[in-house]
Amino acid sequence: MDRFHEMQVFVAVAEEEGFAAAARRLNTSPPSVTRAIAAMEQRIGTQLLARARLSCATVQGAINAAVHGAGLVRCLSYPVHEHLVTGQLRRVLHADELPPVPVHVVYREGRNS
């Protein structure tokens, strides 16, 4: 599964405080949300969410997820969110949204000279 998609799912579950609510928000099934979170937890090697019967909450593992890039999902949506809410921008082509593509970043290690 695509790591960016996993991060989107994680952010939705954390914000909605539940798998079913996140699934509704993402227009997918609760089992697919569960699989995405399980894959992310397996890859990172820690539990990200404390599950309860009707809700879930982020745990210390969420910090690890942020370090691994979960915060990137929010950064990508915030620059336009305010403009969508105020009506300055309008979302079009809902059904034609492309899946996210991987981004590769090259940087030099060490301090800047």
From TrEMBL:
<feature type="domain" description="HTH lysR-type">
    <location>
        <begin position="1"/>
        <end position="58"/>
    </location>
</feature>
<comment type="similarity">
    <text>Belongs to the LysR transcriptional regulatory family.</text>
</comment>
<dbReference type="InterPro" id="IPR036390">
    <property type="entry name" value="WH_DNA-bd_sf"/>
</dbReference>
<dbReference type="InterPro" id="IPR036388">
    <property type="entry name" value="WH-like_DNA-bd_sf"/>
</dbReference>
<dbReference type="InterPro" id="IPR058163">
    <property type="entry name" value="LysR-type_TF_proteobact-type"/>
</dbReference>
<dbReference type="Pfam" id="PF00126">
    <property type="entry name" value="HTH_1"/>
</dbReference>
<dbReference type="GO" id="GO:0003700">
    <property type="term" value="F:DNA-binding transcription factor activity"/>
</dbReference>
<dbReference type="GO" id="GO:0006351">
    <property type="term" value="P:DNA-templated transcription"/>
</dbReference>
<protein>
    <recommendedName>
        <fullName>HTH lysR-type domain-containing protein</fullName>
    </recommendedName>
</protein>
<dbReference type="GO" id="GO:0043565">
    <property type="term" value="F:sequence-specific DNA binding"/>
</dbReference>
<dbReference type="InterPro" id="IPR000847">
    <property type="entry name" value="LysR_HTH_N"/>
</dbReference>
